[in-house]
Amino acid sequence: MPPIDNLYLLLSEFPASFCSLTYAEVTEPHAEGKWSRLQILGHLCDSAINNLSRFIKVQYEPQPLPLTPYDQNQWMDAQQYSKTSPEDILNLWVSLNQTVLRVISNLTPTQLSLVFQLPQGGTVTLEWLIEDYLQHMKHHLEQIIPENA
């Protein structure tokens, strides 16, 4: 399925599935030292924030654009997702990904071939990064609601 269709489908199906979970199911970690479903969704918000910036910057900055990593645990600590309402985090996830969808829906084939420099060396295209973003999202949505992704 093309990335745009895939993201559109996830945005239209996941929220109802997430809302069907109880507060305890959302907020309690699966195991000691693991993230709760709520924190996993928060992590996907952080991923959206970072990748949305990349999807836009690569269009306007010199090539190849360095793909700067972010520390997911530091972001988790800073965002305080475990102390935020499930509705707020779900709304943030939906809003961020609607924006991602709007940005990637308007990319041309030339823009999809723009290049990022990986920290460990090598390069990837914007098209590759979008696919990777969606695979990462689906992996984590599967952790939240196994039949959803």
Task: Provide key terms for this protein.
7 helices; Four Helix Bundle (Hemerythrin (Met), subunit A); mainly alpha; three-stranded mixed β-sheet; DinB-like; DinB family protein; 63% helix; 149 residues; DinB/YfiT-like; 5% strand
SSE order and pairing:
Blueprint (H helix, E strand, L loop, with lengths): L2 H17 L3 H5 L9 H21 L7 E2 L5 H8 L6 H20 L3 H4 L2 E3 L5 E3 H19 L5
Parallel strand pairs: 1-2
Antiparallel strand pairs: 2-3
Write up what this structure looks like.
The protein is mainly alpha-helical. It has one domain: dinb family like domain (Four Helix Bundle (Hemerythrin (Met), subunit A)), CATH 1.20.120.450. It is 63% helix and 5% strand. It contains seven helices and three strands, in the order H-H-H-E-H-H-H-E-E-H. The chain has helices at residues 3-19, 23-27, 37-57, 72-79, 86-105, 109-112, 126-144; strands at 65-66, 115-117, 123-125. A three-stranded mixed β-sheet has the order 1-2-3. Strand 2 and strand 3 form a beta hairpin. Helix 3 (37-57) packs parallel to helix 5. 24% of the residues are buried.
